[in-house]
Amino acid sequence: MEASTRMSGALRVESVSLTFGGVRALSGVSFEAAEGAITAVIGPNGAGKTSLFNAISGFYRPNTGCILFDGKDITALRPPARAKLGLARTFQNIALFRGMTVLDNIKLGRHAHLRTNVFDALLYWGRAQREEIELRRDVEERIIDFLEIQHIRNAPVGSLSYGLQKRVELARALAMRPRLLMLDEPVAGMNREETEDMARFILDVKEEWGVTILMVEHDMGMVMDISDHVVVLNFGQVIAEGLPGEVQQNPTVVSAYLGSGDVGELSRRLRVKEAA
Ligand SMILES: Nc1ncnc2c1ncn2[C@@H]1O[C@H](COP(=O)(O)OP(=O)(O)OP(=O)(O)O)[C@@H](O)[C@H]1O
Ligand SMILES: [Mg+2]
Fold it and tell me: pTM here?
């Protein structure tokens, strides 16, 4: 009983609409990302996936509708306040400080939880602050270990392969100790091996850390392999949702991809997994 009513880490998007000038990016979008599950948002280019992420993390304010996290209405909160509640994200285009080391980039993730005002600063002064620093170091080490990036901890991010940079971005998001982790195209531009590594890390984050995950991804093989629930957007609307297998065979979903002119990509994106 307790667990189902607490909804810790669960996200609910309710009738969210968002327009940019004349462009309607989102139109009455509703869905839920269940606690401790991986929910994938898919859809053709321009469907509104990144706009949806920006609305959830607070960069854009919906024109109508609301966003509930952990049962609490967060629609009016600014991004730092949402981050404090446990929302963390990565970006479609890597947003790291290229001249800084891997470790320093990860440390920046913790800023969401650092002092935001004088009272906090005073409260944390002294012993509490030392404890906080130790705890932080512990978390950073755990993340570095977990993502197998010990060997590059002191390397400048700009010198790393694309796949490793994406892994560092994930590390930084984890350093925020999120309860809801939002990943915008975590394996875009990766080769097969990098994709498989990242898919395994995402599954491990869910299983070992119990983090709720919301992910936008074009790589359908990866989506079908690791998602618990799939939400399909097209022209800013939810056109289907369900288990990966259900969505994959939904004719409306197939024709949305066909209609997008992405026929060349279709077989890759909607490939029905061959019997192993
Ligand atoms: N800041 C903005 N100003 C104006 N229009 C925008 C803005 N952001 C997005 N849009 C428009 O909103 C629509 C949805 O874009 P969005 O980036 O959310 O799509 P997407 O599903 O993430 O696409 P992709 O798969 O290419 O990343 C598009 O028509 C886009 O041009
Ligand atoms: Mg996008």
Answer: 0.85
